Every structure is written in structure tokens, then in C-alpha cells.
């Protein structure tokens, strides 16, 4: 076996399991806010994502163009969200409609508290999770980085818990690494950082912490060059995952020479 | 008769099914979900579900989102 092949083999990773679904790529990418459909198509390709999120909205009767004309459902697993819902009841309604529209039983559940912060409403989110789990949905639930609510969502049967790194679309990165670490310590379901990612290093940080994946949209869609940024995010995700699996050195307060100190 | 489709009043003949209405407005039923008077119409019932005067329909599909 060639050295290069051996290295490649060592870098192999187990698949990401979300309920009954399995994915190789750990980067989930949104489909909103791109400058054009063509740029979106290229960016999705460059990101290597296998899961792409979509929103559920009223059909505009005069419009003939559909987002789904641009997304190959054989290539991507489509993950509908409940974005724009501010109560458990609304989110449950949208989730049921999304399932009926025929994509899958996977739902990105998001129930927001208010329009200014777009922060999740933990109480309504928990209520909706309980109902949707009972109805057989594979629930990937968006939440804040609070470890207690994250645990409660897991206990309510969420298949995947997705704490925000920072507020939606804010690009501030992973604001509270310690909270993410605490969530990871006790989680028995995959933890995916969702929202707040601004640039590639934010993705790497999430993956180095041990998250199972990262979900992002704005960081790619509104970058000056979305396609190039999508590739950066893909590499960042892989780098962070590899670094996590490799076991980093402990941090030290003082220096430690890399070259032999004696025997000149 | 008149139905409300996504908030807009629309005319359709008596005996129109949900599926026919979608066809009339060129909505791809394979990419849509339909709520009739707040109840989801299962996909397999679209072709047999008859509309009545003053029915309220919500038809949703997928758009870009994060």
C-alpha cells in the first residue's frame, strides 16, 4: 500500500448517524440568501454537504420557478425547517406539512422567541419536540447553548440536538465554548452546532470541541465569494474533525523545546 | 364556486378535486403539501378530495432557508 493511501485510510472516519440516516459529510448547509440559484448550486457542490436545509412557505401562484428545480434530491438529503415559527403549535403544523410535501420525516425544529434576537424559545421548543417525537419525526432541534435545555431536549427524544454557536446570521462564531463542551460531555445523541458561524475557523473550533457536525447558511451565502467560502467551510470541517480524532496536545503555560537541548 | 387559495379568492367549477385545482394553477403536487380548512390532505387523497364552496386552502412548498 502506498504511503498516501495509508494516510488516507487512517483519516477515514465513521459515518455520522442521525437516527436511521447516515452521512459522510459533517457539514450541513442552508439554501437561503444566495445571490442566485446558480451560485447556490455551485456552493452546495463545493461544500461537499449531503444534507441541505430548506424552509416551508406558501406557494406563490404566479411563480413557476422552484428551489427544488435546482436541488437534486438524489444527491442531497433535504432537511425542511420550521423557521419563522414562534410557538410550538405553529412549528408542529409546519413540520406536518413538510412531511406531507414528501421529503422525509426529518425536521429541523426551530421555535423562536422573538424577531429581534431570533433566539430559541426553550419552552415552546421542548413542547414541540415532545409532540413531533411521538408522531414519529426524526427531530433535529435548534436550541441555545444552554446545557440543561439541551439535555431536556435529548430526554424528550430529539434525534440530534443543535445548539447555536451565536445568534442566527450573526457570524460571531462559537461564543461559549465551555457550554458546548458541557453539552458534549453528557450527550448521547449527535450534537451539531447550528447558527452563528462566520468563517472557516468557527467551523473548525466546533469540530475540534467534538461536535458531530456543523450547520450553516449565511456564512457561505453572504460571503463575497460563496463558492470559495463553501470550499473553505468543507476543509475547515474536515480539519476540525481530524484534529479532534487525533487527540491534541495539552496546553502548557511554559515553553517546551522541539529540538534537542544538549549534545552540540 | 369560490375557494380561498393561499389567501386569494379563486373561481373553480363544481366538482373540482384538490388535485384538479393544483393542476389549474400549475402547482406541482409532488412538491407541495395541502391544507384544506386547516386539515392536511394526505397526498394519496388529493385526487379524490372534493372542494366545496368557501373552502380555504393553504398550499406550501419549499423555499431557500437555513
Quaternary state of this entry equals: heterodimer
| Largest beta-sheet details of chain A | 5 strands, parallel
Gyration radius of chain A (Cα, Å) is 20 Å
Q: Which range best describes the helical content of chain A: under 10%, 10-25%, 25-40%, 40-55%, 55-70% or over 70%?
A: 25-40%
How many helices of chain B? The count is: 1
N-to-C terminal Cα separation of chain B, in Å?
39 Å
The main sheet of chain B comes to: 5 strands, mixed
State the total count of DSSP E strands of chain B: 5
Distance linking N and C termini of chain A: 39 Å
Low-confidence parts of chain B, pLDDT < 50 over ≥5 residues? none
Return the average pLDDT of chain B rounded to an integer.
Answer: 94
Strand order of the largest sheet of chain B: 2-1-5-3-4
The interface involving the most residues is between: A-B, 39 and 26 residues
**Anisotropy-based shape of chain B:** globular
What's a quick, concise take on this entry?
With 264 residues, chain A is α/β, with parallel strands linked by helices. Chain A is built from nine helices and ten strands.
Features of the shown structure:
heterodimer; A: 264 residues; alpha/beta; five-stranded parallel β-sheet; 9 helices; globular; B: 66 residues; mainly beta; 1 helix
